[in-house]
Amino acid sequence: MPILFVIVVIDLIGFGIIIPLLPFYAEYFHASPAVVGLLMATYSFTQFIAAPVWGRLSDRVGRRPVLLISLAGAVVAYGALGLAHNVWALFAARAAGGLMAGNISAAFAYVADVTSRDNRAKGMGVIGAAFGLGFIAGPAIGGILAGSDPVHADFRTPAFTAAALSAIALVAAFFVLKESLPEASRRALAEMPAQVRMDLFRAALKRPNVGFLILLTFLATFVFAGLESTFAMWSRRQFGWGPQQNGYLFACIGLLSAVIQGGLIGRLSRRFGEGRLIVQGAAALSIGVLLIPFSGSLPVLAVAMAIATYGFSVISPSLNSLISLRVGDGEVGGVMGVTRSAATMARFIGP
Fold it and tell me: Which fold has domain 2-178+194-349?
């Protein structure tokens, strides 16, 4: 489990390096705002298509092979991004990156394999904490590597750095990470006819509350993604903030989320249970988001953002935990892949 956390953090730092710089990279090739928007959406769209496939494949061949293939794909995609000489090459690199992004759904399935029912939410929170840490360190590293000059910024070095980080994660996974899915489970699923596997997968999605929990994942991610994408414009009008102030705030949000998901969620789930935490998280997220437009001072804004962050940070691992508990061992990867697709589509539509 600790090595999985380290691998995911390293990989997500690379992801975080690229995201804030991508619009400027596209503009360097004279892309219009509409083209920039399409470029930003390309990764999410192709990941939405591929995530369930990677998840179901991890049920058949194991989590480790999918993680290794996905990390190798990330190395190639980031390398291609660094070598791009026109905007179409950027599109190709991002599309390839999204298609190869099976690592997160496989990581969630890995956690489901190695945790007990009582510790499932805590394990899911560890992956959530990796997201928080990756998005704290990644943008800062990317900004340092690119430089402060928007006209002559270095976009290639951050891309190659992201490729190097994914390569480090790949090597660590290859030599240290052990397979979590028992061979008997893999063999049993692999020997099933394809139609039987598909029927089992569809039946898993129709089990009581599984579809509803995936819908809740979509809605919670939709709300938080909408907040992330519109906050910078609102803060500029309300407080006159620029990129630096927003960067500091979102770094604090990432840190708070990492603390909650990496340290507190296990205790909270044991005390309240995942179901109550989902209700509690949804209420906190709603209250926080509704308070933000009425935040006329920084202390009020800080409280509102903290409430919203707490809400999303407890609802996300709790939903992943319950979803994994409602399906069989041979269905976890596929269903977590669908869940990841729902979250990806929410991040695509929400902004």
Answer: Growth Hormone; Chain: A; (1.20.1250)
